[in-house]
Amino acid sequence: MTTKVIDLRSDTVTLPNTEMREAMYRAEVGDDVFGEDPTVNRLESDAAVLVGKEAALFVPSGTMGNLAAVLTHTARGHAVILDSEAHIFYYEAGGSCLVGGVQLWPVSGLHSPEGLLNFKKALRPENLHFAPAKLLCLENTHNRGGGTILKPEAQNAFFEAARKSGLSVHLDGARIFHAAIALNCPVTDLTRSCDSVMFCLSKGLGAPAGSILAGSASFIQAARRYRKLLGGGMRQAGMLAAAGLIALKHIPHLSEDHRRALRLAQGLSGLPGLKVSPFPPPTNIIIINIENTGLSSPEFVSSLQSYGVKAIAFGENLVRMVTHRDISDSDIDWTLKAVEGLCTKILKQQ
Question: Which CATH number fits domain 18-249: 3.30.70.3270, 3.40.640.10, 3.10.310.50, 3.40.718.10?
Fold first, then answer.
């Protein structure tokens, strides 16, 4: 057993750095529900400008931000079209259905090259038998797709098709800055073709909590009520918002996460029994197919932890690793040696 631990389960495991902790300690605060927290107000203003929207709302989590967006764009009995592997569909506890009373309408391969065609095929004509579709949700980067990216031209095409069919577009941009860094383009190239966008401050950017929902001024005004309804109206939230402001300064450094993800993927691809797909990884998420090792995903993850590396089972025969700001080059070296040691042990037992 080893005492050293390399945590690659997610980019949510990062810890606030010294600069962030100092900013939180010194944050000017007020009652945000009354709109009187100056640090929250600054974060919301800066975030709106950053993604090219009129206004923004600070929420405790990305899940709440996505749910508030769905509630604002729709009414009970409406349908929301999204990818069958989308985070909103897969990981957000059915909140849209339970709280919003909407039907989630999953479409296979929405983020694939055939995605636009699949979306158009999924659209139904107006009919009293059907729940009317009112919202299209896209995800960029696509988590279960291995951090894949929807390029601006693809998003624009979806937006135009949705508009023609009377649908609004919400972008789950939890890792939208990863996409922009990978494409070497302004983030606004990716956010202008949506009516609303949510991005996380705690994924990759290092904040301890918090996300941003952005859109038009009228949209955010309505979403603010839903944030309250969902229990997300925080009081002296400026301490968290101060961390968010520091997190935004970390955006350029996401390229280091991508560089390390590529180096990790290259090393893993050379080990027996492992296959990385997609390869090369588009951003900071590495998906490893471990089928040829003979272990299940939970067994592989459990065995790897004894070597001091934490990963996450990501479905049948799949394991996910995510690089982030707390992972160094030496941590990548350690991880590769650990996985090599595990693979060697498995081969000897076969």
Answer: 3.40.640.10
Tokens of 292: 């040829």
User: CATH number for the 253-349 domain, one of 1.10.10.10, 1.50.10.10, 3.40.50.880, 3.90.1150.10?
Assistant: 3.90.1150.10
pTM over 0.70: yes
Beta-strand relationship, 79-83 and 196-200: unpaired
Long-range contacts from 107-111, C-beta under 8 angstroms, 24+ separation? 107/81, 107/82, 107/83, 108/83, 108/84, 109/83, 109/84, 110/81, 110/82, 110/83, 110/84, 110/86, 110/138, 111/83, 111/85, 111/138, 111/139, 111/142, 111/145, 111/148, 111/150
| pLDDT by 10s per residue, the chain, length 350 | 457 899 999 999 999 999 999 999 999 999 999 999 999 999 999 999 999 999 999 999 999 999 999 999 999 999 999 999 999 999 999 999 999 999 999 999 999 999 999 999 999 888 999 999 999 999 999 999 999 999 999 999 999 999 999 999 999 999 999 999 999 999 999 999 999 999 999 998 999 999 999 999 999 999 999 999 999 999 999 999 999 999 999 999 999 999 999 999 999 999 999 999 999 999 999 999 999 999 999 999 999 999 999 999 998 899 999 999 999 999 999 999 999 999 998 887 86
